[in-house]
Amino acid sequence: MSRTPPADAESRRAVPPVLCYPLDRLPQPDMALMSLMRDSLTPAGTVTVPPRDARVLSARAGQVVRILSVEGPQVGDLNLWAANDLSEKFYSGKTRQLHGTHVTTGDRLWSCFPFLRPMATLIADTLAWYGTDPHGGRVHDVIGTRCDPYTNRLLSGDDYHHCCHSNLTRALAEYLGISVTEAEPHVHDVLNVFMCTGFTQDSGQYFMKQSPVRPGDYIEFFCEMDLLLALSACPGGDCGAEHSSDTAKCHPLRIEVYDPDPDLLARWVPPQPGGYDRTHGAG
Ligand SMILES: [Zn+2]
């Protein structure tokens, strides 16, 4: 097979891109209402996620969840499920297609098929200032999956048991009172909270770099349904060097849950599952 470019290679490359999913066709969250609700929040609970470990908690529809950096820079891997049906879970790939490789205030975390509805709406992000750095890196990644012992074994030949995949599996098993074997299939691709990533310009490879997060930084999201959340404090710490080992300095993460004013919450309209009839042309 020839690798010689065709005569019209440059003109083929010069064709302008088209956005796959124009955002103006998406149902938009009522950010003015979200802003009012943010001003009305009262604390409803706190969970601390230890380093190289994960915790699961539930949050009701209408509650606000804040993931907070404490003590030192730390990346977190987040899974979401509908509390009453674990088959409805966060779909990072579709979220990426809809909002881009990284998410921030105003973006939503979408559920898998056949539901495809917002599970949560991001309403605050203290790292929104970061934008795109000179390497093409951005923060709050929905391109990486989660560090896991299978890839680690493949690449290093070693077994490491505190990758985010394993942390999420253990925490879910403990929360639900099931075995890790039963819990593992529920763990899915994550929102990499605070993680700074991108693709190299020359080879298109996935890269990570030291997160700009500092203690006091947070992201906040409004729960669009009753949720089960799992958050792992990644063994990569700030992910500035390596993960899948005990090498990096790691810190806890804090999850805070808040209740908005009930009168404001009464104005919120819960999202419904997508309207597709699921016949798939089968007649
Ligand atoms: Zn990880």
Structure notes:
This protein has 283 residues and is α+β, with helices and mostly antiparallel strands. The protein has one domain (48-265). 18% of the residues lie in helices and 28% in strands. The protein contains seven helices and 13 strands. The chain has helices at residues 9-13, 31-38, 92-99, 149-156, 164-176, 180-183, 262-265, and strands at residues 42-49, 54-59, 64-69, 76-82, 85-89, 108-110, 118-125, 138-141, 191-199, 206-209, 218-223, 227-233, 253-259. The strands form two sheets. Strands 2, 4, 5, 8, 9, 10 and 12 form a seven-stranded antiparallel β-sheet that branches. A hairpin with a 7-residue loop joins strand 6 and strand 7. The model has no long low-confidence stretch (mean pLDDT 95). Bound molecules: zinc ion. Zinc ion (ZN) binds next to loops.
Instruction: Give the ordered list of helices and strands.
Output: HHEEEEEHEEEHHHEEEEEH
As a percent range, the share of helical residues equals 10-25%
End-to-end CA span: 43 Å
Round the Cα radius of gyration to an integer and report it.
Answer: 20 Å
Mean pLDDT: 95
Number of distinct helices: 7
Short description:
Strand 4 (76-82) and strand 5 form a beta hairpin. The chain is built from seven helices and 13 strands. The model has no long low-confidence stretch (mean pLDDT 95).
List the helices and strands and how they pair.
Elements: H1 9-13, H2 31-38, E1 42-49, E2 54-59, E3 64-69, E4 76-82, E5 85-89, H3 92-99, E6 108-110, E7 118-125, E8 138-141, H4 149-156, H5 164-176, H6 180-183, E9 191-199, E10 206-209, E11 218-223, E12 227-233, E13 253-259, H7 262-265
Antiparallel strand pairs: 1-13, 2-12, 3-11, 3-13, 4-5, 4-9, 4-12, 6-7, 7-11, 8-9, 9-10
The structure holds zinc ion.
Zinc ion (ZN) binds at residues 77, 146-147, 163-164, 234-236, 243.
